[in-house]
Amino acid sequence: MISRSVADKMSAIVGKEWFLDTPEDLATYSYDAFLPEFNPNGVIIPGSTGEISEIMKIANQERIYITPRGAGTNICGGSVAKRGGLIMAFHRMNKILEIDPDNMCAVVQPGVVNADLQKEVARYSLMYPPDPASMFVSTIGGNVALNAGGPRGVKYGVTRDYLLGLEVVLPSGGVIRTGGKVLKSVSGYDLTRLMCGSEGTLGIITEITVRLVPLPPAKATLQAVFSDLDDAAKAVSAIIGSGIVPTTLELIDKVVLDVIGNYGGARFHKDTQGLLLIEVDGEDSLVAAQGERIEAFCRQRGAVEVERASTLEDAEKLWQARRTAFGAVASLRPNCIVEDATVPVKKLPAIIRTIVALADKYQLKIGVLAHAGDGNLHPLIMTDLRDKDEMDRVDHALEEMYEAAMAMGGTLSGEHGIGIAKNRFMNMEFNDSAIEIMLGIKKVFDPHVILNPGSFLSIYDQINEEKKWN
Amino acid sequence: MISRSVADKMSAIVGKEWFLDTPEDLATYSYDAFLPEFNPNGVIIPGSTGEISEIMKIANQERIYITPRGAGTNICGGSVAKRGGLIMAFHRMNKILEIDPDNMCAVVQPGVVNADLQKEVARYSLMYPPDPASMFVSTIGGNVALNAGGPRGVKYGVTRDYLLGLEVVLPSGGVIRTGGKVLKSVSGYDLTRLMCGSEGTLGIITEITVRLVPLPPAKATLQAVFSDLDDAAKAVSAIIGSGIVPTTLELIDKVVLDVIGNYGGARFHKDTQGLLLIEVDGEDSLVAAQGERIEAFCRQRGAVEVERASTLEDAEKLWQARRTAFGAVASLRPNCIVEDATVPVKKLPAIIRTIVALADKYQLKIGVLAHAGDGNLHPLIMTDLRDKDEMDRVDHALEEMYEAAMAMGGTLSGEHGIGIAKNRFMNMEFNDSAIEIMLGIKKVFDPHVILNPGSFLSIYDQINEEKKWN
């Protein structure tokens, strides 16, 4: 709980209209794209770095929990107030401060929506490569906090790879700057990258400088349909191993395709067990040649059908199935858990077989959607959170899936984050020495553990002396 | 000093022949490519992660300084024993453990020489992009510790961009693993990137997983000669701004070209004030087209002469001037200080003008060599360390140069590191809050400050309570 006097102080900093605490407001900010809900005690919407610094000084002194939140599209519970306190939102800090084509970079506030930045930089024939599925809603600040990936990651990497510099407000209220417009810097410890993916547990990101790349002049889009999912997975390895670096290499399995079909989306060849959606970009001639080679690879690996889009409209049609997938799947059962297992690319067929086997063993409906080109799987578990017995089976299946992924040299999260979704699995990937180092880093930035508590490393639970608060 | 009993324990871990402490051995390890010399008390050459863990346990308990050292090619004094203690060298841990073409990665021990890895992966038509000038000598472990760059950085980025995972021995003796063969991971704080560029101050890197890319099938090499250095710098901005991403874009000024000419290397057009060496790589047709466009850009910006290499031999000839540069410059005066100022690309002409003006103001001989495509300059100060008056002028010039670079949004080091070379300038780039966070991180990893003391953040001097040791 937050005392009246603290609430008044906070409210005075941002102005009354930007401090929300009616029951309706609290309910609105009680959830993100992960399922469980947690009511905050208030929502604060600062307008500047200076205001955030003032807020943090009070929060640090009064031990008020602060959970920063972009658009709340994360699916790991990273932006909900697990232990109450304030949600900090960034609607007001949503300006593109500068697009600098000469230095191929842009400077933005954290609340800028990813797609808005994409659109603006395209006017300079530039591209900001990270393209999370949530890009029409999610913000650059949230993308940095979660180190968001996206379909273009196969060729272009993730948010981290385009970060040049940050301004960050520390829990103490201190403001630091890391990096800047320079393309190369090795001064001091790499705080820029340390902040990226730290899920709002180390500091508040208030300004971001991102690197841009030339907008590729052409692209080719292909859809290949396989009657054996294993063949599709093997085609992925073949393409990656061939020296072609596709922009995008998405895989969708039959479970998901059937749901999409019933939902009114595209229909597929009757023998379809798996679909690959592949894109390459670059110079015209190159793109055409690579498109042909990829088509040949797919046919050699047993593709039943390959379609190649020659216009942007045709390409959009091919994307329709992929874009419809989440909506379609969400319509089937009350809830859909989007998982994020990631393995070395070569292990893709093996982890898919594991997931299919687990669905069978635990009688669950699990579809598979994957950024297959970088080994990043999104098993979609269609379930009902109210069904205790089914949820127990989901838990068992998840645990076994992550154990299998770990045994294959995988990771707990390719791009969705840890949040509260995977706290309990952290010791599968990290030993005690590594966890201790991470807890130590947390305490350096946030000694009173006021930022996004309960998330990520369950820091709050692990630092015993802090348990007495509130 | 190290007691006999500690030396005996250390020696027992690695075997007598791998613990060196004769005066000749100590002198051999007393310097790196930076100038000042510091004698260690001994040199220890471990053969395994297990041995390193044992060594660190003793070192941590007995407060023995350990300074890890790759090939000692760094030019910031990052691998010398500034306060005595042991140098840890990695000749024995020099194996390429695995090349995995399916997952496009390699796993190596820290002592593997960069060029050896390049050669081995090329047999699989793969490339490890980071190519520091020292690549025929320097090791991957050292490259990671310093986050080494290189001429290919314009297109391919730096060592950090190819790091997938690490095994690290902490000062406590604990062994942690970060990342692995997965291309995407957002589990926990990004310890992989935090280790990269930490200059041996946080832990001992004992295994490295690097990402590989397809070896580009073709390249084009161009040399453009300008009668005005400013025109050359502007041509750089024009090329970068055009949407072409060259692999390499090197600039050499007249001061350096004259030295190269006298040294017996290539001779240039009499009006030459600046030379650009430009390379593009990729598919055949693309490379040819980009080569033509770059030639046109250079001529439009006033190039007096442009040569385009059509064979690998011709390309090698064009590289000759660049490759000869360090040797030639080193022959001119007793010492050469290689600096590392880096600015946003657009500021390249401005920082070059600043350097020319400073050379004039302080009557110094300064040549300019630059990885111009990413704004990374290497001013070469030809000087004599024994001349106190001249060194004072060098110090003033450096300070003013870095102040100018900072005002342009630059950084203290693009790729060479901080070491002991730029400790004193850290507060130009970072405020007290940022420095405090860095010191805090250091203490989390290395609470007794035994790793590479005196380097990087002058951590030792700033943590007062530790000053009583030894």
Proportion in β-strands of chain A: 15-25%
Largest interface (CB within 8 Å) is between: A-B, 94 and 94 residues
Uncertain runs of chain A are 463-470
Order of strands in the sheet with most strands of chain A: 15-12-14-13-17-18-16
Secondary structure: helix percent of chain A: 25-40%
Q: Which structural class is indicated by helix and strand composition of chain A?
A: alpha+beta
Treating each run of at least 4 consecutive H or I residues as one helix, how many helices of chain A?
16
Q: Residue-averaged pLDDT of chain A, rounded?
A: 92
**Which oligomeric form is depicted?**
homodimer
Radius of gyration of chain A (CA) equals 23 Å
Largest sheet of chain A: 7 strands, antiparallel
In whole angstroms, the N-to-C terminal distance of chain A is: 7 Å
Overall geometry of chain A: globular
Give the number of DSSP strands of chain A.
18
Give a quick precis of the structure.
2 copies of one chain form a homodimer. Chain A is an alpha+beta fold. Chain A has 16 helices and 18 strands.
Question: Would you mind describing this structure in some detail?
Answer:
The structure is a homodimer of 470-residue chains. The first copy, chain A, is of the alpha+beta class and 470 residues long. Chain A has 16 helices and 18 strands. In chain A, the strands form four sheets. In chain A, strands 15-12-14-13-17-18-16 form a seven-stranded antiparallel beta sheet, with helices on both faces. A five-stranded antiparallel beta sheet of chain A has the order 5-6-10-8-9. In chain A, α1 (4-14) runs antiparallel to α3 (49-62) and α9 (254-262) packs across α11 (312-330). The longest helix of chain A is centred in the C-terminal third of the chain and has 20 residues, at 388-407. The radius of gyration of chain A is 23 Å and the shape is globular. Mean pLDDT of chain A is 92; it is low at 463-470. At the A-B interface, β9, α7, β11, α8 and α10 of A face β9, α7, β11, α8 and α10 of B.
